[in-house]
Amino acid sequence: MAETTRRNHPYSGVIAKLKQAGLRPTRQRIALAKLLFENEDRHVSAEDLHEEARAASVSVSLATIYNTLHQFSELGLMREVVVEAGRSYFDTNTDDHHHFFHEHSGQLEDIPSDQINVAEMPSAPPGTSVSRVDVIVRVSGSAD
Question: What is the pLDDT of residue 10?
């Protein structure tokens, strides 16, 4: 009976995701994972997630949000997209893809990986290998 109750817990999906990544499902991690992963893929800044958490009555500091986002990224639950020095977004879509960065609005938009063709790659430095290529196409204009 207890096992059935656990499986039907409203947060069982995010709890399983955290455990699978090797994380202890603390109250704050569960609350943040629920905000991040229970809807469609998205790009979020730490500040945006902090505001969402506050609106959802989740008591968590901005420092904890930064730490959690970086931890989730290091474990492959999301990807950090650095658009400029000191400005990062965190992407819940971990599939291979690229981004448009709308300079005026600060929004990121996915570009499917098959729409970018990198014709030539330099050789990786000795003792290293290329793990991934991230392309950010910066756009500006009226649609921005």
Answer: 62
Length of the chain: 144
Q: Cβ-count burial of 132 within 10 angstroms (0-12 exposed, 13-18 middle, 19+ buried)?
A: exposed
Domain 1-94 -> CATH class: mainly alpha
Could you tell me the residue ranges of all domains in the chain? 1-94, 96-144
Q: How far apart (Å, rounded) are the C-alpha atoms in residues 111 and 47?
A: 24
- 34-56 CB burial, b ≥16 within 10 A, e <16: bbbbeeeebbbbbeebbeebeee
The pLDDT of residue 5 is 42
Average pLDDT, the chain: 89
Which structure tokens are listed for 140? 């500006």
| pLDDT tens-digit series, residues 23-44 | 998 999 999 999 999 888 999 9
What per-residue confidence (pLDDT) applies to 11? Answer: 67
